[in-house]
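Our collaborator T.R. sent over the components below with a one-line note: 'Predict the complex.' Nothing else. No constraints on interfaces, no templates requested, no preferences about which chain binds where. So this is a plain run: every listed entity goes in together, and whatever single assembly comes back becomes the starting point for the next discussion.
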Amino acid sequence: MPTGASILHADLDAFYASVEQRDDPRLRGRPVIVGGGVVLAASYEAKAYGVQSAMGGRQARRLCPEAVVVPPRMAAYTAASRAVFAIFRDTTPWVEGLSIDEAFLDVGGLRRLSGSPVQIATRLRRMVGEQVGLPITVGVARTKFLAKVASGVAKPDGLLEVPPDGELAFLHPLPVERLWGVGPVTAAKLRARGIHTVGQLARLDVPTLESLLGAGAGGHLHALAHHRDPRPVQVGRRRSSMGAQHALGAGPHSPADVDATLSGLVDRVARRLRAAGRAGRTVTLRLRFADYTAATRSRTLRRATDRTTPLLAAARSLLRAAQPELARRGITLVGVAVGNLDDAPVQPELPFTPDRGVELDNAVDAVRDRFGAAALTRATLLGRRPGLEMPRLPD
DNA sequence: TCTGGGGTCCTAGGACCC
DNA sequence: TCTGGGGTCCTAGGACCC
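Returned assembly:
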């Protein structure tokens, strides 16, 4: 385990909303919501009214009627993310991206070259502010887990170091919800036992926790509460799945409607795979029934592919098999994900591959590259609205 | 509180192989 | 006819995060 507090967790504040405020001065100081049907990001002015990301748009507007609602501009967020990650990698080669707007940085061993971790974090925050124009919070600690908790406590626009000799003193007064991995379900179980703080959690023995939360989660949480969970910063992590989904209204929805939506989703995912140079073996159909319970059906192909045709065939056969259940229970969401991702196989030169599927995919991709994603649409999808996309790990 | 759209990780059972 | 143990892969569900 590292001895000094040399892991940074750097996390852009209200990322999409901050980009909007940066690019439109009229939005500064005002509550801003990015997204329409669902809140993708809320500025801190909007959060003060209780608006949270992932909240339904209607509820958000009820909480904060004066909020300015702007549609997402993914290209702007991607560009800002690239600029910030360039600064991360300028700081240290040991960068583990977690999502479009946060990363772990290991700055151990840079002391003589760059100064103490807190000095490095201070400089990092200044550079992101000056060069990209965005606020960013940094947590500094001995482990990734604690650095992440620290940045959460320090937000927004903050810097917080947890010194190695002050870890439990920092951790134990915190509410259990602050722990990375404790969500609503676990928090409710703990609350029911009168456990509200990390300190109370730490006093429970492992068997008690395991009986409450299951063998794996119980032991893991015990380790977290005592801060015994070192994990190294992993450079060059790549995404392991890629998917798209679409919520359907209450319905009813004909099998043809659902199939058309699924085709559009597979189109999108396959195109993103090809753009990223990835290919996948496992096709997962994601379903949500009328009662909002979820289910998945998956199938693993013999070889990884980035081709629309085989991916669509697999997705369709899963949907066909689920049709009787859908007829019975109704459907409110359909999605598809491609997992088991690998680098895309190298395509042989065109003259040697009279493969109509490859040629069609390439032609469709080329048209969309030049004229935009909406330039070509499946006939069955005409009149439907495309959904939103949110990139995560770098491809 | 009526419900997005992206993801990751963990668990558990069954098939299959040695 | 019954009997071990271990490892990997596949499938499905669920919790959690942004």
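Summary for T.R.: DSSP finds 15 helices and 13 strands in chain A.
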